[in-house]
Design brief:
globular, four-stranded antiparallel beta sheet, 10 helices, 233 residues, Rossmann fold, 10 strands, alpha/beta, six-stranded mixed beta sheet, single chain
Length: 233
């Protein structure tokens, strides 16, 4: 479904990605793990067009999407739930969700809203509440729900558990498993490497803009290098 080949990205003179090559097949959950500054978020931003790739290629469902504008990438079926939630605090839960579905035909909006709210009953209970008044975990649910409103084929999640209480972290990863069971393809960036490797099928380890390891998540969980660097071994 998604293939990155020798992906490179510069922020001015700084090279954030130095030739990242990876694949995500339809129906998989694939995780990117690595230290801060490894290039995980930059990879997602390049895919979603927030920062244009400086070199290499991004193919999605057989077509090139690198250097397309972000709204065109969304229309192709890629949705990006960014780090830090980035919800609209002054807008209601419903209004936030409608913003996520802005590319949908009007006739489909209500049906998609109902489907997304069925995944997040807590948001349905707070449908008229301002997004900024929700708890951190509820705001993260809202950010994920908003990203689902455009009916993506590929959902990219950037640090969904960041800053959440342990009980909410568990619920977020339960949500990821639920989405996987529903057949959605997920590319997950996550500092909580242990939890990420538990819910994912495969993983890639990034270090200073390069992929240094990849494989089945079970194999990565037992790899001494991963255990020592990311799993507290």
């Amino acid at each position: 479904m998604l293939r990155l080949t020798d992906l490179q990205l510069f922020y001015g003179p700084i090279q954030a990605l130095k030739g990242v090559t990876l694949e995500v097949a339809a129906g998989e959950v694939v995780t990117l793990i690595g230290a801060n500054g490894a290039g995980k978020s930059s990879t997602l931003k390049a895919i979603s067009g927030i920062h244009a790739a400086s070199g290499g290629s991004i193919e999605f469902r057989g077509g090139r999407v690198d250097n397309l504008p972000p709204h065109e990438i969304v229309s192709r079926g890629i949705s990006h739930c960014p780090e830090g939630r980035r919800i609209f605090g002054d807008l209601s839960v419903r209004e936030n969700l409608l913003m996520g579905g802005y590319l949908l035909p009007a006739a489909e909006m209500d049906g998609q809203l109902d489907q997304v709210l069925a995944l997040f009953p807590r948001l349905k209970e707070r449908i008229g509440q301002a997004g900024g008044t929700l708890s951190g975990g509820e705001q993260q649910m809202l950010a994920i729900a908003r990203a689902l409103m455009c009916k993506p084929s590929l959902l990219m999640l950037d640090e969904p558990s960041l800053g959440l209480a342990p009980i909410m972290v568990g619920r977020i990863f339960e949500t990821i498993l639920d989405l996987k069971q529903r057949g959605l393809t997920v590319l997950l960036v996550e500092q909580n490497a242990s939890a990420a490797l538990e819910v994912s099928d495969r993983g890639y380890v990034l270090e200073v803009g390069n992929v240094i390891l990849s494989g089945d998540s079970a194999a990565l969980r037992s790899d001494p290098r991963v255990v020592q660097a990311y799993l507290g071994g």
